[in-house]
Predict the structure.
Amino acid sequence: MKQVLSLILEAKQSGKKMLALLIDPDKIKGDEHLEKWIQLIHHSQTDFVFVGGSLLTNNQMDEVVKMLKAHLSVPIVLFPGNWNQISNHADALLFLSLISGRNPDLLIGQHVHAAPILKTTSLEVISTGYMLIDCGRQTTASYMSHTLPIPYNKPDIAAATALAGEYLGMKLIYMDGGSGAEQPISRAMIKKVASAVELPIIVGGGIRTEEDAAAAYSAGADIVVVGTAVENEPELLFSFNEIKSQSKQ
Ligand code: 1GP
């Protein structure tokens, strides 16, 4: 399989938008349930599966990743909430540095724990500048991270933060309203960040409708991440992929 970062860079260069489904392993209720997700992902032409969560309590991440990998050809990308969330069955791991916050543990601490373990795996490690944006309500991500998200109406702060991430050598920028956010990140903020950096931009959190996804793509998102909306209405994954295909750089 092609390296995940190369796939993203090539897609960006050719003006192709991408879609990732976020699977929270805690929400998988047995093999049959996961089978349904696998079928849905397979038939909907979703580009990536992200797996992870800010707080996992069921200890089934490795099993879920293993099964996804065994049945799907799309890249399985870890989106870890902490250094424990590593599975060698995945293809890549977003090595997230929470650059919107000032919590040293999430800027470098967790990474020190994870690095030697990652070295023993075959995972592609992708340095990612992760920014939490305040989208109306406190999410698990902002609570668990002990950080203040970037205010919703401050695109300049988001752009300066993303640019700092780029200068620090990060390869991707992930703008996240947090899972279950009340509203998606504003177009104005995505636009400002997209014009500030050359890096591919991932946008997620609170994307519930086709219009939300289309707005994120047209503002400059290269990858849109959907989770909660598709958990509630799985068929939406087809509509989101349709919107993706219609959206161009
Ligand atoms: C969270 O971007 C993801 O990190 C997905 O959020 O569950 O709100 O779609 P939702």
Remarks:
- The two ends are 25 Å apart (CA to CA).
- The mean pLDDT is 96.
- The chain has ten helices and eight strands.
